[in-house]
Amino acid sequence: MNKTAREYAYNILIEILLNDAYSNIAINKEFRKNNISEKDKRYISEIVYGSIKNKLYIEYIIKTYSKGRIKSKLKILLVMAIYQILFMDKTPDFAVVNETVEISKKIFGKYDSKFINALLRNIIRTFDEYKLVFEDDIQEICIKNSCSEPLYKILENQYGKDKAISIIKSFNNKSKNSIRINYNKISKQELINYFNKKDIGVEESNICEDCLLLEKLNIDDISFKEGKYIIQDEASALVACTLNYNEDEKLNILDVCSAPGGKSLHIATKYFNSNLTSCDKYIHKLNLLNSNKERLGINNIEIKEQDATILNLNFVNNFDVVICDVPCSGIGVIKNKPEIKYKITDSYIEDISELQYKILENSSNYVKKNGLLIYSTCTIDKRENEKNIEKFLSNNLNYKLEKIELSSIVKEEKLGIINILPDEFNCDGFFIAKIRKMED
Q1: What DSSP element (H or E) covers 138?
Q2: Distant-in-sequence, close-in-space partners of 125: CB < 8 Å, separation ≥ 6
Q3: 3-state DSSP assignment of residue 321
Q4: The whole model's pTM is what?
Q5: DSSP codes, 420-431
Q6: Any idea what DSSP says for residue 373?
Q7: Residue 156 falls within a domain, yes or no?
Q8: Which of 63, 69, 189, 205 is the most interior residue, by most CB within 10 Å?
Q9: Are both 298 and 202 inside the same structural domain?
Q10: CA distance 330 to 278
Q11: What is the DSSP string of 87-120?
């Protein structure tokens, strides 16, 4: 029996909220397993992402209307139904209620379906957001914007109240659909013409010159399959643009935490005469990098399984450029992975910033004299970014920050530092530091 779009959305939300899956992975997995139309895929994605982004707010409404304890799986069904009622104007309320009740009958039985029916109809009749009561200002800010208190307090402490509120509001927006052109196979104008002929809205990025912004993405598109472009956020694509070498130079480049490979693939395309060694400790991620390498027709990347925290003696003083795109908390990508905002804690940030610093210190051993070390993250927590760089420079006096020159509306925050905050642009939050190794 065929499932409805809402049933697929419910299955995906179970994976994300109860089984700790990442939203993009859970969605793609469900789409691959089932024959779902493009229209339904868009509808499912809107329910899933919208429900997660507004989860705390909707759960507070549920708590207001129902004083008893509600089973986790039942609550997820209610969250996605209430999201549709409050935020999806094109969906008739009666249709949301009727189909939610039918789904609940299949999963939970008649008793729970009657409870769901009554609660949803009561919300439709009586809900007024201005009548919600909060304990204090912080709870109101966090509930209305569906942001965990630990994350809000981290941002308030580092950026001040007004900026923290602006940032958490931006988390509920969506970044633009960014793709990066593969110049090995097509020019920018040819790709723009291609999308115009297909009547897909396209514009040039003013953040990264190698990116285009699409009205909608379709991984079944023939040009995507042929490797003429790759999906990559504009901010992430800036890493390759910070190198500023002549593109025909022959460089020995190392990417220590490369998978799934967007930055490695971009650098390899841009510096076509150079040799790139792309490392990661996870085989399944390296496999993804290898398949993208083949799809894009790139032949100057060597892929290696390598833990970035462990010194490789064969790499020491051997590379003109070392890319150190370290694992991070992911605060910068919450627009596209909203489940992250419910997982952030101070202790988690402290732990991961220590890991990042260990990788940075280890990777610095691989840079030749006068070589370049690029440190980047997709987070905006200063302990993971500025604090790690300050600590590294104080412990390594033969390194110094170097000016970053870009053809972009993004500019240096200070010498050698780019700090993109998610409320300032329609892309991910991102941090880049450009560091040059000097003579001893």
Answers
A1: helix 137-144
A2: none
A3: strand
A4: 0.94
A5: E-TTTSSS--EE
A6: E
A7: no
A8: 205
A9: no
A10: 21
A11: H-TTS-HHHHHHHHHHHHHHHT-HHHHHHHHHHH
- CA angle, 275 as apex, 271 and 278 as ends, to 5°? 100
| Residues facing residue 178 across a β-bridge | 213
Assess if residue 355 is contained within a domain: yes
Residues 241, 227, single domain; the answer is: no
Number of domains in the chain: 3
Contact 381, 350 (CB under 8 A): no
Judge contact between 422 and 170, C-beta under 8 A. Answer: yes
304-319 tens-digit pLDDT: 999 999 999 999 999 9
Provide the domain limits for residue 206. 177-231
Q: What is the domain-level CATH number for residue 193? A: 3.30.70.1170
How far apart, in whole angstroms, are the C-alpha atoms of residue 59 and residue 233?
A: 31
81-85 own/partner pairs: CB under 8 Å, 24+ apart: 81/116, 81/120, 82/58, 82/120, 82/123, 83/47, 83/50, 83/51, 83/54, 83/58, 84/47, 85/120, 85/123, 85/124
CA–CA distance, 54 with 137 (Å, rounded to integer): 18
CATH number at residue 124: 1.10.940.10
Give the distance, in angstroms, between the CA of residue 314 and the centroid of all CA atoms in the same chain: 33
| Residue 168 counted as domain residue | no
Residues 45-90 have pLDDT tens digits of 999 999 999 999 999 999 999 988 999 999 999 999 999 999 998 8
How high is the pLDDT of residue 374? 98
3-state secondary structure at position 43: helix
Q: Which two tokens stand for residue 184?
A: 């090995």
